[in-house]
What we know:
There is one protein chain. This protein has 187 residues and is of the alpha/beta class. It has one domain (3-181): Alpha-Beta Complex (Spore Coat Polysaccharide Biosynthesis Protein SpsA, Chain A). The chain is built from six helices and seven strands; from the N terminus they run βαββαβαββαβαα. The protein has helices at residues 25-44, 75-85, 102-115, 147-154, 164-167, 173-181, and strands at 3-9, 49-56, 66-69, 89-93, 117-121, 128-133, 159-160. Strands 3-2-1-4-6-5-7 form a seven-stranded mixed β-sheet, sandwiched between helices. The longest helix has 20 residues, at 25-44. It starts with a strand and ends in a 6-residue tail after the last helix.
Amino acid sequence: MSWTAVVPLKTRGERKSRLAELLSAEERAALSIRMFRHVVDVLADIPAIGRIVVLADQRPSGWDSDWIADSGRGLNAELDLVRKAVTGDLIVLHADLPLLASEDVIALIAAAARRGLAIAPDRHGTGTNSIAIKGGEEIDFAFGADSYRLHRKQRPDAEVVKRGGFELDLDTKDDLKIAESLGVEVC
């Protein structure tokens, strides 16, 4: 079994803008890149992942592998196009998961293998930080506000995978405090 992992990444403009009161633009950009590197490093160590694709408005510096240009239609529309281009099994992971471990991704893949689709919510139970879709399964991407509920509404049969590596994304001051308390380098 070989999965394609898609990692959306913002490479231009304001990154992590909700952290602007705490971190400078340069610090937020550096944090964003560190987390992205962590996520793709974790993915690279998983034998079931055959391909890692970055979806970004420009190729990330130093990224020599697969890249699909984000043309600005919005994340869900861009992922729909990627889904049509990628045959087989697909996993979408956000790039801001500093605690992600290979065991988290392996658990999500195993859940999708059992149920066809698996969803990993954030710690609040409102956002979707990763979704794994077996080839042939359907879902309309609904990333953004209340994405977890929207994904579950479409696919109540999806297996939910709650693991620490998926639950903490860095979007708010509280997220940043939690990450720092767990030893994540943020600046």
